[in-house]
Specification:
By secondary structure, this protein is an alpha+beta fold. The chain has one domain. The protein is built from 3 helices and 3 strands; from the N terminus they run ααβαββ. A 3-stranded antiparallel sheet has the order 1-3-2, with no helix packed on it. The longest helix is centred in the middle third of the chain and has 17 residues. The radius of gyration is 15 Å and the shape is elongated. The two termini are 21 Å apart. About 7% of the residues have low confidence.
Amino acid sequence: MSALLKVSTNFPRCLGMKRNKLRPPSFYSVCCSKVAQTLAVKGISVIVSNAAHPLIKQQYDGLFYKTELGRNSLIAANPSRQTKFTELLISSFPVRL
């Protein structure tokens, strides 16, 4: 079984929490990791994409496979200013690229 979970600023509402503009962005990452863990424990396939930051990696220790991927930033209008970023692919199953 698999599930698709789109994380946005409304994410805490699905957990029964009220939206709070004062919560730091890391709060939403912690919520996402807890939901991912709950789903994985129930045998549901989980895949999450996030920034490859040490604190994000730490939140998914244990049950998850982590793969780092390089990607280009497409935000800059000038292509010469588009830089490479490292994205973290987190899954409850091994991913072959």
